[in-house]
Design goal:
The protein has helices at about 1-15, 20-35, 40-50, 55-100, 105-135, 140, 145-165, 170-185. It has about 190 residues and is mostly helical.
Length: about 190
């Protein structure tokens, strides 16, 4: 039963989310929480791991959730579920794209999807940011803990490096090193 549930859940996520893994994140969070498969903290931790590992983000998340809930068969079902809609859609689009490329309807659809994707990615940023920076709510932290200031400093340094076009691998390594150093220094809760 869990295998079918994993497959159908990730099939729905794959079918109704456009824009890649980050656009899928709000729906993944909602579905995983609704089924009680993982809590928000575990999912956010895996988002960080997923960023550091090779492969598409959505596939990494689906595989992880599937493994945690149904072992290797669960990983296969969740991964197949999230990939299958894109695979079928790409086959259909590739088959008919040349014929309909200049269609006003197709151009309008693409124009309408762009802001929706940006909105979904923005929602992911806010959701993950809230879980990382304010896990107990904004008012409970009130910017008094050391951990929040260290996290914000790491975020600021990484943001500056990103805008200065420092290679993403260096940014990831730096943020991991800073987090490890702060953890060993006992500055993070």
């Amino acid at each position: 039963m869990i295998l079918l549930e994993l497959f159908l859940t990730f099939l729905k996520i794959g079918a109704f989310t456009f824009g890649g893994g980050y656009a899928m994140l709000p729906l993944i969070q909602e579905e995983v929480a609704a089924h009680g498969w993982l809590d928000s903290a575990a999912l956010v931790n895996f988002v960080a791991v997923s960023e550091s590992t090779p492969g598409p983000f959505a596939i990494n998340i689906a595989t992880y959730v599937g493994t945690e809930t149904g072992g290797i068969p669960g990983a296969l079902c969740a991964t197949l579920g999230v990939v299958l809609p894109s695979f079928v859609i790409i086959l259909l689009v590739a088959k008919g794209y040349e014929k309909f490329r200049n269609s006003k309807i197709v151009r309008g659809c693409m124009t309408g999807l762009k802001p929706a994707v940006v909105g979904l990615i923005g929602a992911s940023v806010l959701s993950v940011g809230q879980t990382v920076f304010f896990p107990d709510g904004l008012l409970s932290v009130a910017f008094t803990g050391t951990a929040i200031w260290i996290s914000l400093a790491i975020f600021a340094v990484c943001a500056v490096f990103t805008f200065r076009k420092i290679h993403p691998i260096l940014v990831i390594c730096l943020s991991a090193a800073l987090g490890i150093a702060a953890g060993y220094a006992g500055l993070l809760g």
